[in-house]
Amino acid sequence: RSSDPPSSSNGDDSLVAAAGSNGVVVVWNARHALLGELSDNSKPSDDLLSSIGQPEAVLVEHSRAVHRLAWHPSPQRPGLLLTASQDATVKLWHRQASTRLPKPTPTRNAPLPAKRKGLRSWLAVPSSKDSPTEDTRTTTYSWQCTKTFSPKSEAVRDIRWSPFFHDAFAMVTDSGALIVYDIRFSHEPWVKERSAHPGEATTVDWHPTRKYVIATGGGRDRNVKV
InterPro entries, from UniProt (predicted)? Predict the structure, then answer.
């Protein structure tokens, strides 16, 4: 069981994620799980009924406990999820959609008379007015780990996306370091403050109105630093 409560996405409020001490992250689509997308007159399909209560994805990349989850705060970037772990990594997950178009099948055949070898027979051809007109496309989603951030063998305690720089996030580690990454460049941090706290740092957050102000909280020194 993780110390971090289940987290929901701001970009898509139907997505909920939770993580455990075994390093596994589970993502649910709450609308599908609760049949929230069905109207009063609609009937659930067999696929939908079988998916009730089932997760959309099970993400298995971390080798130790996951301490924090962070969805991207921008509605323009739904399905971007950061996970921070005791295994000294932060992983960036991306949700990708794919649409499947089923082959059209007529609902009823209209008979057409024809003569063949002196005998009267019937040929069945589709009638355009009897063909289904509703959109029966189905959308499925897959999750991929697109980046891994490794702050040199230090367990990551907390992570937060920047509310101003959409490619930036901050993390704090067991050694008390504050590190800021740009997700476009996973090999080198944007900012690294090695001695933010003398012991472990347990929390981090961005100022809601000042772009370059970050607050961190330490576990052993019981201080909050800005």
Answer: WD40/YVTN_repeat-like_dom_sf (IPR015943), WD40_repeat_dom_sf (IPR036322), WD40_rpt (IPR001680), WDR24 (IPR037590)
Instruction: Tell the residue number behind the tokens 């989850």, with chain if given.
Output: 69
Provide the token pair at 45: 């399909």
Report, as an integer, the average pLDDT of 153-180. 93
Q: Length of the chain in residues, anyone?
A: 226
User: Which of the residue ranges 46-55, 57-66, 117-126, 139-148 has the most confident prediction, judged by mean pLDDT?
Assistant: 57-66
Rg (CA), the chain: 26
Contacts of 89 (CB under 8 A, 6+ apart): 62, 148, 149, 150, 156
Q: What is the DSSP letter of 22?
A: T
Q: Determine what percent of the chain falls in helix, strand and coil, rounding each to the nearest 5.
A: 5, 45, 50
> How far is the C-alpha of 134 from the C-alpha of 212, rounded, in Å?
51
**Does residue 123 surpass a pLDDT of 50?**
no
Count of C-beta atoms within a 10 Å radius of residue 122:
9
- pLDDT-based confidence at 121, cuts 50/70/90? very low
Q: Which residue in 172, 168, 136, 170 sits closest to 155, CA to CA? A: 172
Nearest to 77 by CA among 12, 163, 162: 12
d(CA 183, CA 161): 10
Q: Which two tokens stand for residue 152?
A: 């040199």
Residue with the two structure tokens 């390093």: 23
Q: How many CB atoms lie within 10 A of CB 151?
A: 21
CA distance 42 to 33: 16
